[in-house]
Amino acid sequence: MEKIKAYELSEMEFIEVTGGIENVQDLYKWSGFFFSQGEGFKGKKLYYVIHHFLINNDLPPKYFLVTKDFIEEIGEITEHKNSEMINELMLTLLLENGILKI
Question: What sign for the dihedral angle of Cα 63, 69, 70, 75?
């Protein structure tokens, strides 16, 4: 069975869980994607991806609840020495988990 690593949230769901954008802490940033953590239900730490569309301010941001494993993969990618490889690995991970759609 395949483990789901990302679940899309509506803006209202994101606000209900986190209390708002001001209550999450950015761990990593990459090309309009913010990989964050914040408290969720009963004070449990939860992880999010917030995607801001850089070239079109009329599009609202997208919010995703992600697993700790997903955030750890992002952390490993950011430590890669080759910036082109970082871009390729980030794109692959975001596509594979349904966060980025082409």
Answer: positive
